[in-house]
Amino acid sequence: MTSPLETKRIGFIGCGAMARALAGGLLASGVPATRMGGTDIDSAQRQDFEASLGIATGSDNARLVAESDVLVLCVKPGVVLKVLEGLGGQPDLQRPLWISIAAGIRIAALESGLPPGARIIRTMPNTPALVGAGASVLCPNAAAGDADAGVAEALFSAVGSTWRAPSEDLMDPVTGLSGSGPAYVFLFLEGLAEAGVRQGLPPNAALALALQTTFGAAKLALEDGRSPADLRAQVSSPGGTTLAGLAQLDLADLKGALNRAVEAAAARSRELSDDS
Ligand SMILES: NC(=O)c1ccc[n+]([C@@H]2O[C@H](COP(=O)([O-])OP(=O)(O)OC[C@H]3O[C@@H](n4cnc5c(N)ncnc54)[C@H](OP(=O)(O)O)[C@@H]3O)[C@@H](O)[C@H]2O)c1
Fold first, then answer.
1. Cα separation of 38 and 177, whole Å?
2. Which residues line ligand 1 (CB under 6 A)?
3. d(CA 159, CA 168)
4. Is residue 158 predicted with pLDDT exceeding 70?
5. CA–CA distances in Å: residue 21 to residues 132, 196, 275
6. Dist. CA 196 → ligand 1 center (Å)
7. Structural domains in the chain?
8. Would you state the torsion angle of the CA atoms of residues 186, 138, 100, 110, taken in this order, to the nearest 10 degrees?
9. What are the angstrom distances between the C-alpha of 16 and each of 105, 183, 250?
10. What is the sign, positive or negative, of the torsion defined by CA atoms of 127, 129, 130, 132?
């Protein structure tokens, strides 16, 4: 089966961490460096992008637009609309597919910076994309069709899993869950390792055990097919060690705390989007 990216020329505006992760994933999945390009205002970032990926870069955003079928906006959220403003008046802006990875920049804001009818996909990737294990959520605008969403899905599949959100309203809860989620897991890892040290384990061993246990549990849950609740029940024998530990997490209302965390992060995402 041919990939939706088969003939597409892909341009990255902003050659920072996220652009490098995406371009690296695409190279690994077979998209040749010659079909990709990047721009950045920072010459050190351009050099780094070129040296690590072998993809040509420049500083002329308008030229990159003219040479690309898909533009991935990989600049900080506060810069996205300025980049579009800077392109204002270019003849070619309606032709390419525009993909934004900027947190909190709504589709309407992107549309206001592009000509009517421009095809846009708003996305929310997360930091594990940097190691090819991201969870990215995509939301097309009304002008983008199924083929456009397929292009974006193929692009983000190169750095992990993808899910198409049926409505843009869900991008705030997504930000609260998978966008901010890696930090919740890092806190969990810190706490688990510190608890091991308090019980007498050497710090390095405690951290290694916490990391592998978290990774292994997520891998098992992904591959096994049973729900997390079923997997938990399977390792919780009556009177056993795991139930004794879980009882403390229940007392601390871990699920309630996670609920409040996702709710607060989603609310903050809504506020930031309203300000943009
Ligand atoms: N990192 C993540 O895990 C993650 C997760 C989800 C979403 N995102 C989104 O991804 C986007 C990029 O994040 P990042 O961490 O990759 O940022 P980054 O490392 O700061 O990269 C952005 C690059 O764009 C450059 N730039 C600024 N203005 C430009 C312009 N007008 N034209 C071309 N390049 C320009 C910046 O240069 P200067 O530094 O000189 O300004 C910088 O080198 C953000 O919008 C963020 O919300 C990131």
1. 30
2. 13-19, 39-42, 45, 61, 74-77, 79, 83, 101-103, 125-127, 179
3. 22
4. yes
5. 8, 33, 28
6. 37
7. 10-168 (3.40.50.720), 179-274 (1.10.3730.10)
8. -130
9. 18, 20, 41
10. positive
pLDDT value of residue 3: 87
b/e map of 84-101 (b: 16 or more CB within 10 Å)? beebeeeeebeebbbbbb
Q: Which atom of ligand 1 is nearest to the CA of 129?
A: 3
Whole-structure pTM value: 0.93
Taking only the tens place, the pLDDT of each residue in 111-133 is: 999 999 999 999 999 999 989 99
Instruction: Summarize pLDDT for 6-24 with one digit per residue, the tens.
Output: 899 999 999 999 999 999 9
* CA count, 13 A, side-chain hemisphere, 240: 10
- According to the model, what pLDDT value does residue 1 have? 66
Atom 3 of ligand 1 has which residue's CA nearest to it?
Answer: 127
Report the run of H or E that residue 103 belongs to, with start and end: none
The span from the CA of 109 to the CA of 273, in Å, is 9
